[in-house]
Sequence to fold (114 residues):
Amino acid sequence: MDDCIFCKLANHQIPTSIVYEDDDFCAFKDANPQAPVHVLVVPKRHFANVADDVPTEVLGGLLKTAVKVAEICGIRDKGFRLIMNTGADAGQTVMHLHCHVLGGVDMGEGMLPR
Ligand code: 5GP
Ligand code: ZN
Fold:
């Protein structure tokens, strides 16, 4: 998609700090990290979010890639959190399907800030 920042990052039209990539997915560091490890995993193909009509292989590949990223970043065994913000109430700001990989700190048991 022409005007999508994550399409441009994932397809090397804009340089970024890439942690992992293959033919279908790209993982790069979040520009505004919320944890010591904060990486975004995106499909190279454009989808708005997980509620878009995303093929099962893409959803599976996205999660598999997120686990690979956790391994690369050294947080697979200690634990990590995957987040996919979807739509306005979830605070999705970039409308290209992405999965946040967060870790490197004890995030506790709650999922939302109190
Ligand atoms: P969302 O709120 O949509 O789930 O998250 C979008 C994320 O993308 C945010 O955490 C934000 O910091 C990150 N982000 C936005 N623009 C850029 C960018 O140009 N480069 C990188 N690396 N991250 C970005
Ligand atoms: Zn896109």
